[in-house]
């Protein structure tokens, strides 16, 4: 059963923000903007405070998390903050031996491939991630009317790191397990769904006013496999947090053929990468959901004029949507010029001012 907050979403300072209104498909003063991976290596102030502190350690220091989360809000004037963490943090918190290797990503010491390995995936309790509750308490105080987005990795994407042992291009061990032992696969995803749901609940109860489920690598699957082998677990996560009434965003890369199913899994907002124009994405997702996206992050390496032209294309395709949150089609690339991001926020705000 989903819990109740003492402070309901409707009484929070961020309730009337453009971002939350767009998620609810209500009229907005301007199209809200935030960027996936808006904190991080594109910002010199981030590199400075992170110096000498390993990634996973930085995620456990509430003051540092607060500072890093606020940096892109101060600099770019984005319409939402995203909690600074990583999708593997809840796995680390329940005792999985893993690390984030610079330039590589999450690496798992002992991959999960057999039934007895499931025992290592115990339930997550709020005490396991007390630093998250503490950091979000600090953050919501500092953010005032700017909403905070909580997030988690979706069961498939988490499974891919756990089963492969690290980043993977083809997800061969993951697919071998999914096709070869459907019952073990289903049990694995079900456990990950419970861990993910518990982690999102902690963030919402601490004050996050929206949540995003990152199923970054699920675009590797055909729709039939997604429906049978992944959707039940992702739907369980969305159902578990439905009662809070905070918008639920669902995002993956290369998911053009899955957009309808990803909406069906229970999202209020479907994230779209740059490969599908937003008007076409809206047809695939169907009515009753807002969309988020979808400027190609690589466009930011081009001239300011080209960035504006490509941004107009995105906004024109979004003109008929019920709700639109402007974002990139995937995360900010590490060597992006931060000034290009600041200009982009201003351009979208000016161009869509109503
Ligand atoms: O030391 C460092 O700076 C390491 C780089 C780094 C950072 C800054 C990693 C390693 N994670 C993060 C933070 C992070 N991770 C955020 C920041 C919050 C913000 O947006 O401002 C977020 C949202 C994530 C989530 C995440 N981690 C995803 C989903 C989002 C996406 O980009 O699709 C995924 C797939 C990961 C795994 C991961 N963690 C880090 C890397 C380099 C990767 C990808 C590795 C791979 O290619 O598989």
UniProtKB/TrEMBL annotation:
Gene: hemE
Reactions this protein catalyses: uroporphyrinogen III + 4 H(+) = coproporphyrinogen III + 4 CO2
Name of the protein described by the UniProt record: Uroporphyrinogen decarboxylase
Main localization of the protein described in the UniProt heading: cytoplasm
Highest taxon listed in the record's lineage: Bacteria
Site note Transition state stabilizer, residues: 86
Enzyme class: lyase
Its job: Catalyzes the decarboxylation of four acetate groups of uroporphyrinogen-III to yield coproporphyrinogen-III.
């Amino acid at each position: 059963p989903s819990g109740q907050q003492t402070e309901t979403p409707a009484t929070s300072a961020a309730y009337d923000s453009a971002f939350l209104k767009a998620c609810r498909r209500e009229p907005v003063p301007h199209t809200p903007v935030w960027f996936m991976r808006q904190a991080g290596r594109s910002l010199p102030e981030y590199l400075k405070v992170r110096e000498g502190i390993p990634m996973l350690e930085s995620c456990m220091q509430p003051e540092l998390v607060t500072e890093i989360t606020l940096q892109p809000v101060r600099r770019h004037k984005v319409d939402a903050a995203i909690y600074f963490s990583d999708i593997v943090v809840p796995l680390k918190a329940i005792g999985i031996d893993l690390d984030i290797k610079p330039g590589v990503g999450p690496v798992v010491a002992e991959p999960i491939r057999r039934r007895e390995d499931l025992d290592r995936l115990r339930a997550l309790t709020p005490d396991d991630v007390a630093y998250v509750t503490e950091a979000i308490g600090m953050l919501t105080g500092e953010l005032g009317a700017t909403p905070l987005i909580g997030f988690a990795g979706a069961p498939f994407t988490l499974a891919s790191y756990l089963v492969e042992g690290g980043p993977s291009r083809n997800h061969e061990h993951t697919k071998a397990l999914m096709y070869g032992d459907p019952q073990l696969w289903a049990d694995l995803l079900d456990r990950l769904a419970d861990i993910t749901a518990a982690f999102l609940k902690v963030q919402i109860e601490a004050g996050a006013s929206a949540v995003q489920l990152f199923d970054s690598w699920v675009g590797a699957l055909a729709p039939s496999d997604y429906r049978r082998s992944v959707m039940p677990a992702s739907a369980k996560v969305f159902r578990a947090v439905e009662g809070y009434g905070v918008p639920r965003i669902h995002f993956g890369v290369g998911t053009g053929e899955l957009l309808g199913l990803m909406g069906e899994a229970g999202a209020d907002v479907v994230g779209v990468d740059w490969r599908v124009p937003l008007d076409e994405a809206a047809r695939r997702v169907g009515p009753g959901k807002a969309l988020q996206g979808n400027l190609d992050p690589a466009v930011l390496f081009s001239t300011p004029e080209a960035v504006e032209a490509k941004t107009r294309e995105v906004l024109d395709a979004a003109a008929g949507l019920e709700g639109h949150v402007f974002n990139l089609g995937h995360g900010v690339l590490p060597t992006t010029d931060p000034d290009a991001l600041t200009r982009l926020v201003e351009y979208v705000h000016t161009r869509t001012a109503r």
